[in-house]
Structures are given as C-alpha cells and as structure tokens.
Design brief:
five-stranded mixed β-sheet, 5 helices
Length: about 220
C-alpha cells in the first residue's frame, strides 16, 4: 500500500507507489492547464521521430549503394579471375595455312572454266604449273615458265574473274577462270602466286613469289618424271 501524501490522500488500493524522485504529483481539476506540458511532450516526440526517420532515410540509400558495389565487384571477379580448365566463349579461329604447309597436300578436284565458259577439270591438266595471274601480274613469269616446262607439263594461268582474259594470249598456256574461288580458298588469301602439282595431284612446291625461272627449274623439270 502507498503511503498517504502530505494532505492525507493515499494511492488507490492495488496501485503501486510512484517513484519518490518524481516528487509530489498533483492532478489538476482543469486538464487544460496541462496544455503547455502536452505541447512540449509532442515537440519532443516529433523531434525524436524526425531524428529516427532521417537516420533511416540516410541509411537506406547507403545500403543500396553498398549492395550495388558488392554485386559489381563480384561480377568482375567472376569474369577476370583465372580458373583451371576454363573454356573460351568462342573457339579461336585457326590461323591461315602457311604456304610451305601446302606442299605434300592433294590438290582438290576443282572444275574451272575456259574462255567459252565450258567446265575444265583442273586435275585433267596435270602435271602442271599453276599461276594465279590476279595476284602475280607477271607476264614474264608465265612466258619463262612456258619456255622452261618440259614436254607433258602444262602451264595453267588462273584468274578469279568470271571470264578468261583473251588478250594478250600466250602460246602454250591454258588460260582458265575460277569465279567460284575454289583454288584461292585452297591456297588461302595471299598464300601463293604459283604452285607445282605432279601427275598424281600432289602439290610438290608452293611459290609465294615465283621470281626467276632458275629458282624452281629443277622442281618444274621433275614434274615430267
């Protein structure tokens, strides 16, 4: 039970005593007299609520920014971190076949066309020295090859144009066109200007730059064997 106050009024039965540090509590008859105290309490509550809300308003963007930074860093690490056995997204393109590697390979069965657009099987002209005149641009090489070629060896000039150039004609030369680009596809871009092929269809020598006939005279003569 609480003790009676200075005026002899004790607390209601069943209610605990108020803390002594609160001092003497007087409940006025007119509640309006507490308006100023209530206003002060409301101001304190709003100030506390504003501080809490501002803290939350500042904390939320910081959390979002932190999550975004961590996500970005995780993605960069996953992409750049080396892993054993990690495959590439795309296969690495194979390098072009070097000219020297063509020696010993079989010439594909290609049909070229003559001046009348009639098909001509290239293998039917073997053994032969085949000169790609579009890249060579060397009439002297063609003339020297014709002069040095032994009997039975055909000198074939090939252009990638749709039709064979009719002038200037060179005696002893079989001029053909390869509009489909099959021969160039076999050789690779810029791989060779001329090649020597024996009667079995095997490339015996590749000449990126034919040069003087003395440089390949022996190989040209060997085609007749």
């Amino acid at each position: 039970m609480g003790k009676p106050d200075a005026e002899g009024h004790g607390p209601p039965d069943g209610l605990p005593d108020l803390p002594p540090e609160w001092g003497r509590i007087v409940v006025p008859d007119d509640a309006s007299t507490l308006a100023s105290e209530a206003a002060e309490v409301r101001r304190e509550l709003r100030r506390a609520a504003g501080h809490h809300t501002g803290h939350r308003a500042l904390t939320l963007p910081l959390l979002v920014l932190l999550v975004a930074v961590l996500t970005t860093l995780t993605g960069l690490v996953a992409v750049t971190w080396p892993r054993a056995g990690r495959g590439t997204d795309r296969p690495t393109p194979a390098p072009s076949t070097p000219p020297v590697a063509l020696a010993g390979q079989a010439l594909p069965a290609l049909d070229l066309v003559d001046a009348g657009q009639a098909p001509v099987p290239l293998r039917g002209l073997l053994p032969a020295m085949i000169i790609l005149v579009d890249d060579c641009g060397c009439p002297d090489v063609v003339t020297e090859a014709v002069a040095a070629a032994p009997a039975g060896v055909t000198v074939v000039t090939v252009t990638e144009q749709r039709a064979v150039a009719t002038s200037p004609p060179v005696n002893g030369v079989r001029a053909l066109a390869d509009p489909a680009g099959g021969l160039r596809s076999f050789l690779g871009p810029g791989a060779a200007n001329a090649l020597l092929v024996d009667r079995t269809g095997v490339v015996t020598r590749v000449l990126p730059d034919p040069g003087p006939v003395e440089a390949y005279q022996d190989d040209l003569s060997a085609l007749a064997g």
